[in-house]
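User: Just a sanity check before I run the rest of the batch. Below are the structure tokens for the first item. I only need the designed sequence back.
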């Protein structure tokens, strides 16, 4: 499963974002559990279910809106100079290793200092929070590299081994590959063997960016004065109110409102007996949603998976006419595939045996056979024909 990590300084709203994103209404989450432990949960990305276009009865979506599970990790708060040993422990390393991408939460309201202590709203430039996390993570990687440097150079000299391959081994636990090392070296234009400290820090920054793509989330945007939002806009930030999302997801769970995560608005249930205070709270969230086109939480999750990680959604079926699996369930699965994947890749994703016995695939929307090398498109419904091995 694709996994996203939530990282940021203390008090920026990570846990609130995590709780909001993993709080799923029963009808959305057919996944057996949404919170695995305090820091690991299941969130969902939102897409269009093809059932309405194909006129088939479907039980896996809500009115044509389909939610697909992704893992979510709430990483412990990072403090300045964490790379020097203040709080960056094994747990952080482990969380980072598991993550395909990072949601970097910043306090868009400028209401917390570098360590997360509350200060007056607007008194800290939130752009500094972006730089801080990226700096800490690059310096932490640089620390690992420099501690191993002499050994790596020796290894590369004594064996028939390139320095890049040796570095890749050091970072393999973080999911970093030889290709990442090569691309980062090229991007910063350095020769690893002769690189000095400054070059290696730049290299680590690039390596971090390439191997763990980051989406910046400007949280607490509901409190943020315009002068805090403006500089963040230059950084391609998704603005959120995690607290707002949590409030309406809880209200939806209690049947007080109708809301699907990612909707631009919600409607109050006429039978709900809301107190004046509850109504006023929801009115504030509604106002934010109108201004920002929703609470932003779903937009951040979708942005990380569909844009940053470049995934498309493909629906494998066994019966290309009824769009069912062997048990008669309509559009039972939705796979998040890397853009550029082929029907053969899909076959392997369904099962190794199906991949190995792959014969051909049928595009259920057109009824046509497709070549095994043809790129799949977002929303494709595909039947794989294979000989069972
Ligand atoms: N107004 C507003 N308050 C928020 C929002 N998100 C979080 N908060 C509040 O900010 C405070 C900190 O939120 P947390 O979610 O605990 O922050 P955290 O980053 O997990 O903090 P640490 O556990 O210390 O790392 C809480 O009082 C939240 O209610 C938001 O979007 N808007």
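Assistant: Here's the designed sequence for the first item:
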């Amino acid at each position: 499963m694709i996994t996203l990590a939530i990282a940021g300084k203390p008090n920026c709203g990570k846990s609130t974002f995590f709780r909001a994103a993993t709080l799923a209404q029963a009808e959305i989450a057919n996944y057996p559990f949404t919170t695995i432990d305090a820091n690991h949960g299941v969130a969902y990305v939102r897409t269009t279910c093809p059932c309405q276009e194909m006129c088939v009865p479907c039980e896996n979506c809500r009115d044509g809106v389909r939610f697909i599970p992704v893992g979510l990790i709430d990483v412990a708060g990072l403090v300045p100079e964490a790379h020097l040993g203040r709080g960056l422990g094994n747990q952080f390393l482990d969380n980072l290793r598991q993550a395909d991408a990072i949601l970097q939460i910043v306090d868009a309201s400028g209401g917390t200092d570098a360590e997360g202590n509350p200060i007056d709203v607007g008194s800290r430039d939130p752009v500094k929070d972006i730089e801080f996390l990226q700096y800490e993570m690059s310096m932490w990687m640089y620390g690992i590299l420099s501690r191993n440097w002499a050994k790596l150079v020796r290894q590369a000299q004594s064996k028939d081994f390139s320095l890049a391959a040796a570095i890749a081994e050091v970072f393999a636990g973080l999911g970093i590959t030889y290709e990442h090392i090569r691309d980062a070296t090229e991007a910063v234009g350095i020769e690893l063997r002769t690189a000095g400290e400054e070059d290696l820090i730049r290299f680590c920054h690039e390596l971090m960016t390439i191997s763990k793509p980051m989406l910046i989330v400007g949280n607490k945007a509901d409190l943020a004065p315009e002068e805090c939002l403006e500089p963040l806009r230059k950084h391609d930030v998704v603005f959120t109110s995690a607290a707002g999302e949590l409030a309406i997801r809880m209200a939806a769970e209690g049947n007080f409102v109708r809301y699907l995560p990612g909707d631009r608005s919600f409607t109050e249930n006429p039978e709900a007996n809301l107190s004046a205070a509850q109504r006023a709270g929801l009115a504030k969230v509604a106002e934010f949603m109108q201004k920002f086109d929703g609470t932003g939480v779903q937009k951040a999750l979708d942005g990380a998976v569909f844009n940053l990680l470049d995934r498309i959604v493909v629906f494998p079926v066994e019966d290309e006419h009824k769009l069912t699996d062997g048990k008669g369930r309509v559009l039972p699965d939705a796979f998040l595939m890397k853009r550029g994947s082929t029907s053969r890749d899909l076959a392997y994703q369904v099962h190794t045996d199906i991949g190995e016995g792959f014969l051909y695939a049928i595009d259920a929307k057109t009824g046509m056979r497709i070549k095994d090398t043809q790129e799949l498109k977002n929303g494709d419904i595909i039947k794989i024909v294979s000989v069972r091995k």
